[in-house]
Write a sequence for this structure.
């Protein structure tokens, strides 16, 4: 499992769910946004390995979103659209897209193209272990160690902890945690609270009872001395 992060910016929630299912089956993590402005915020904060970007979106189209992405870094981007004209393809490539897929598409084709782009872009394996205070978070194995002991986390508990560990001491709103860690689309605030309650209980059993703080009316924070 490579566990690289794929950001999907697409206003059709059904397409989002299909792409998430196929990417996650192939071992990737996903985060999504139906609003391009939220997608740009996710990109800035989460630093995904690749972006799948729709062209036709309200508020801000895919070409504008791509230009905004390219103004800050060179994250690989696959454009997805119902427009098949060569002119649109050329515009996407000229703005810096790495590839272009036309709807309707086979999700397996998108995965294959993403895999090829990531192989070219990242060519070697980067370290998969994030060390933060007493925690060692291995994104390849999807495991968390406290010292030599391994925490018995569910997949969702792992994703919540890993997501917060990438920005310690920052308050995460519940809606953001749903977007990033429970992307199935049916999660609610109380679902996050339930997973967090279980996660805090398991951390407490590992002598880390105060690692996660609930912020009333907002969400949660992972507390780490000195950031």
């Amino acid at each position: 499992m490579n566990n690289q992060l794929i950001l999907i910016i697409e206003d059709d929630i059904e397409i989002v769910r299909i792409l998430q299912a196929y990417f996650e089956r192939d071992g990737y993590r996903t985060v999504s946004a139906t609003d391009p402005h939220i997608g740009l915020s996710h990109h800035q904060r989460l630093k995904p390995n690749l972006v799948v970007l729709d062209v036709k979106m309200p508020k801000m189209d895919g070409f504008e979103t791509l230009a905004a992405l390219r103004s800050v870094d060179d994250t690989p981007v696959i454009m997805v659209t119902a427009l098949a004209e060569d002119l649109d393809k050329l515009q996407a490539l000229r703005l810096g897209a790495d590839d272009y897929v036309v709807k309707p598409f086979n999700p397996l084709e998108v995965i294959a193209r993403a895999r090829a782009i990531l192989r070219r872009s990242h060519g070697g394996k980067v370290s998969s272990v994030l060390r933060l205070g007493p925690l060692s978070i291995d994104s390849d194995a999807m495991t968390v160690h406290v010292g030599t002991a391994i925490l018995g986390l569910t997949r969702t508990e792992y994703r919540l902890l890993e997501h917060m560990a990438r920005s310690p001491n920052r308050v995460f709103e519940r809606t953001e945690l749903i977007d990033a860690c429970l992307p199935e689309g049916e999660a609610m605030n109380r679902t996050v609270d339930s997973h967090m309650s279980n996660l805090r209980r398991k951390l407490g059993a590992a002598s880390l009872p105060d690692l996660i703080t609930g912020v009333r009316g907002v969400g949660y924070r992972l507390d780490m001395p000195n950031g």
User: Anything to note?
Assistant: The domain at 5-122 is CATH 3.40.50.2300 (Rossmann fold). The mean pLDDT is 84. The CA atoms of residues 50 and 118 lie 7 Å apart. The chain has two domains: 5-122, 129-222.
